[in-house]
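[Automated response] Your request has been received and processed.

Submitted sequence:
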Amino acid sequence: MSEGRPKTVSGMLEQVRRGRKMPWLKRGLVVDVDGTMGTVVGGNASMNIQVRFAGMRHSCNCHPTWQTTYYQDGEVVAEYKQKKERGDDTTGSHDSHH
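Generated structure:
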């Protein structure tokens, strides 16, 4: 078996954890991505996280530090919020931002 990159979303999460220096990142964390709550289900080859949002069948590719707050047991683990510019309309579809 080769030592290449992991092929599973859970295996890729380890790559994201190390590559993005987020040692606390793990599957099952609750995450708020720009106001929409979801659950971290894994990572991907883009060094992003896979998030399953409520009511969605499939997970979405999300940048781990774009407008995100991570929670474990109701407590904030980490928060990455950029200030929104005046007149910045970010109320559109979340898919365009992930």
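Summary generated for your ticket: The chain has one domain: 9-81. The chain has a mean pLDDT of 84.
If you did not submit this request, please reply to this message.
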